[in-house]
Amino acid sequence: EAETAEQDAEVIRAQQAQRQMPSPARIKAIIDEFVLAPEVADSVARALYSGKTTMFYGPSGNGKTSILELFANNFEGVALMPYALYVYGQVIRVFDPSVHEAIDDVDGGDAVKDDAKLDRRWVMVRRPAVVLGSELRLESLDLAYDPQARFYQAPPHVKAQGGVLIVDDLGRQRTDARDLMTRWLTSVERGWDSLSLITGEKLRMPFDVQLLFATNQPMEQLADEALLRRILYKVEIPSPGPAEFAEILRQLCQQRGVQTPEGAIERVVERLYGQAGEKPQAAFARDFLEVIIEGASFDGCEPVLDDESFERAFRLMMSQG
Q: pTM here?
């Protein structure tokens, strides 16, 4: 038997009253996995802790996606999820094993646990985290009807109820970013979203998600000032400075077993940051070492970060035009 939309809304409201945000210590532990300037790390931690809609922006290759994916994979807490909803004589499937991790023994609120034990139409899951990328289209935000099975599939933001919805690569979708942002920001502000059945009926669903956007495009190209004002937190993830890049390179050399003669890392940083033009992204350190390791394998020797290997890798990676 499926749950009704009204009963689903009641449970979601009860969960909202009981929910605890991830602790600052937990969020800081996640951020500490990355090498960020102190002020950047602080801004990221505060935005994630807030539970509010946030836009993470900045050049590609500097960790926006990795930070959000790690946050999603370590999202704390539990939520009640209906297996399905029954609305206007139609069934809407909500529980999705590819998104929801069912759990048996939890330390959540008593009311939530009692509901789960008494009603088999609900399943206790870890707080869901749904990550969407450039494949997202506007029609993906509505109910999808399967005429063979004769039921609807809930859209991603419904499956993310009580959790976090991450939209990566905003601006790369076929759908205009303004339309996506307007649809979801409006739902966040009013606390509900309107979905349509193929029979024409409209369904009002609670909208209870932390909405996180990530983009490498200039924000003024994505939306006008009025729309951007509706996003409370805006956090830039810039390319690393010399100190951060040196630490990233040092950690990667240790992880990958690349020998670093005395002063080698400092010379690399001086070479990269001492020339005019765009400064390296964080991902450049990983790619750069990959070329050095593969070159050492080609030469039949152990990988070493020295002047010769640097110049060879730099020549192979950088365009000469």
A: 0.86
